[in-house]
């Protein structure tokens, strides 16, 4: 297994190092065999080459069996001609990573960390399936003039069908309930989403479907998060709703995500940003990266034994009260990581 | 004062009747002089004329000093060639109602109704200033074909400047803190928003400005709602964020909004929908309509004495434990309304 490693910026390299140390320890006990290849990406790549996604990084990512990304961006590149985020959009597009899978799960131990009341948030367990390579993120024309600006939200029917099917298939492995989120009372693209959803749904007779406007969905995520199982939505709505959803878990620093292509490697990354404010302080929570690695082990390598090892070690560490600051504890990135590695050994 | 009355659909006419009864009682004690003219709008207008915004309704609204709208839409018109919502977009555009003002205030008595924990939500008091007549709601081209669809997000610099100035001016009457919400790391229109905000901000040296991406703002509304004073944002982001924000108050059924034009009448309406599920049951909360009327009295007619009368009567009624079902009580639309009228007399 070849893994492309993109450490990125600010806390990115710190949590990547932590995650890889945990992976190494777990792999040693289970004979999971892998090779790491590290590439500059984002701000680090701009500094090194002038480009957020250098050719060699893209090539390396394309050739790998899976990609690990930590986090990119930050104030340092605010006025750079190209921003680190441009690299993220470019790699998504180049690798055809059309399905971003974002789990929102509230485990009982973390209910007290949620900003929501316990009776509302308890039992929350849903996944947002966000379209990631089309919509207003990529549509043309795009224009920025002194007196006006234009962005274009375009969807091909085939792009909509593909992501809907990915979501319906995921729902079949879960509680068989899909919520398609759109703004079909206003947008033409949303009307097409809804039409295609209505055509595709009968192919999954075991799955219940409901439709929700994006504004109503933004309400329900806060009011009644246990309503959801699988939310399928377009790129921009998915960006907003998945961050809103992550917040209600109260454990942003622990949440991984997967971006899947049609074929080729998936990309795994924490959902949080590069946190320039805590970079270098040892306060970064390594769990999001460790959870991203677990997700990679399971979904790209079917290495469930190795993933289970890590999962148990993390659970034991948390149960022992060793927690990072964002979960209310005092463990540093390093002490947290070492504690997990001790548990693995 | 001439007030155009658009009762709308489902619970719309029920809460409109309640609101107007309260207005009548309060006006009688303060000699506030007004004339009502009622027009069909939304689904009711489709039934009567085939159009959600008939010419006579638009003319009447244009000629009025203020417009009261209850709520429109519902499943009855799902397959109508024109939907009730089209009337809403059309009246916003025709009257140039470019600034939608949505207060999000959590009064101490309602903290227990919020889905958020008390320590997070207590003291929340902010206003979302949403651009309402441009962006992806109105941009051309808009296309719906079998194999693709297109929506266009366009902003003129003048449209952005106008709404920003409205927001900054509002902030000067409040805690002098503006948050401009955009997606400037991806969208050209957002980059223009941010450029213009940076140009406009120095004209309001007493106002602090910060910038937030829409996904981060969706997080912060749940995590730290007391951070905000005035949020200024474009049409679609405002739609999503203002509904999310309304939810954290736990009192959706009480929140009014104002849509302001450059000149001409403002439109006042509850932020909730027409609630087909409770229409005819007496469960509709009249407070959103009553609060809309108070807002109208203050902002369009400077009739503060009349508005104060109503405010005191509402507070006394709630303090006496008379509450609608959505606030945890058992009062009907009618009994709630009568109790408030009794307090006025
Ligand atoms: C950094 C930004 C371009 C990106 C996005 O909007 O997709 C991020 O918010 C995300 O969700 O991965
Ligand atoms: C009904 C719909 C078109 C409308 C909107 O999206 O503007 C509504 O959600 C609102 O916020 O007033």
UniProtKB/TrEMBL annotation, chains A, B:
Recorded metabolic or biological pathway in which this protein acts: Amino-acid biosynthesis; L-leucine biosynthesis; L-leucine from 3-methyl-2-oxobutanoate: step 3/4
How many cofactors are bound and how?
Binds 1 Mg(2+) or Mn(2+) ion per subunit.
Q: What is its EC number?
A: 1.1.1.85
Ligand binding (substrate): 92, 102, 130, 215
Domain named Isopropylmalate dehydrogenase-like is located at: 2-340
Keyword field: Amino-acid biosynthesis, Branched-chain amino acid biosynthesis, Cytoplasm, Leucine biosynthesis, Magnesium, Manganese, Metal-binding, NAD, Oxidoreductase
A Pfam match? Iso_dh
Q: Where is this site: Important for catalysis?
A: 137, 183
Q: Which reaction does it catalyse?
A: (2R,3S)-3-isopropylmalate + NAD(+) = 4-methyl-2-oxopentanoate + CO2 + NADH
Q: Which residues bind Mg(2+)?
A: 215, 239, 243
Please give the cofactor(s) recorded in the UniProt entry for this protein.
Mg(2+); Mn(2+)
Q: Where does the protein principally reside?
A: cytoplasm
One GO molecular function term of this record is: 3-isopropylmalate dehydrogenase activity
- Domain of life of the source: Bacteria
Which range is the signal sequence, renumbered to this chain? none
The cellular location(s) given in this protein's UniProt record come to: Cytoplasm
Report the enzyme's class at the first EC level: oxidoreductase
What the protein does comes down to: Catalyzes the oxidation of 3-carboxy-2-hydroxy-4-methylpentanoate (3-isopropylmalate) to 3-carboxy-4-methyl-2-oxopentanoate. The product decarboxylates to 4-methyl-2 oxopentanoate.
Q: How does it assemble?
A: Homodimer.
Q: Which family does it belong to?
A: Belongs to the isocitrate and isopropylmalate dehydrogenases family. LeuB type 1 subfamily.
Tell me what this protein is called.
3-isopropylmalate dehydrogenase
**What is the originating organism of this protein?**
Loigolactobacillus jiayinensis
């Amino acid at each position: 297994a070849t893994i492309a490693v993109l450490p990125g910026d600010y806390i990115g390299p710190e949590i990547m190092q932590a995650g890889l140390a945990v992976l190494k320890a777990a792999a040693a006990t289970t004979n999971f065999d892998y090779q790491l290849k590290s590439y500059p990406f984002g701000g680090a790549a701009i500094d090194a080459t002038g480009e957020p996604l250098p050719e060699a990084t893209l090539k390396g990512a394309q050739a790998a069996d899976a990609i690990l990304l930590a986090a990119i961006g930050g104030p340092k590149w605010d006025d750079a001609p190209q921003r680190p985020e441009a690299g993220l959009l470019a790699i998504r597009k180049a690798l055809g990573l059309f399905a971003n899978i974002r789990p929102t799960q509230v485990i009982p131990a973390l209910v007290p960390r949620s900003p929501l009341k316990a009776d509302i948030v308890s039992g929350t367990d849903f996944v947002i399936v966000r379209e990631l390579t089309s919509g207003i993120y990529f549509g043309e024309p795009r224009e920025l003039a002194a007196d006006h600006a234009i962005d274009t939200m375009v969807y091909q029917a085939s792009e909509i069908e593909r992501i809907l099917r990915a979501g319906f298939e995921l729902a079949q492995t879960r509680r068989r309930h899909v919520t398609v989120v759109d703004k079909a009372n206003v947008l033409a693209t949303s009307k097409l989403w809804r039409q295609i959803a209505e055509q595709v749904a009968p192919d999954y007779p075991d799955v219940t479907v409901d439709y929700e406007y994006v504004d109503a969905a933004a309400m329900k995520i806060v009011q009644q998060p246990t309503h959801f199982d699988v939310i399928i939505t377009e790129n921009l709505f998915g960006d907003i709703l998945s961050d809103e959803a992550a917040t209600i878990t109260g454990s942003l620093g622990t949440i991984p995500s997967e971006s899947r292509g049609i074929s080729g490697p998936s990309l795994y990354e924490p959902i949080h940003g590069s946190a320039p404010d805590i970079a270098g302080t040892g306060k970064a929570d390594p769990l999001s990266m460790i959870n991203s690695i677990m997700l990679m082990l399971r979904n790209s390598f079917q290495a469930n034994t190795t993933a289970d090892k890590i999962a148990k070690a993390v659970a034991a560490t948390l149960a022992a009260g060793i927690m990072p600051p964002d979960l209310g504890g005092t463990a540093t990135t390093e002490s947290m990581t070492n504690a997990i590695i001790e548990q693995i050994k």
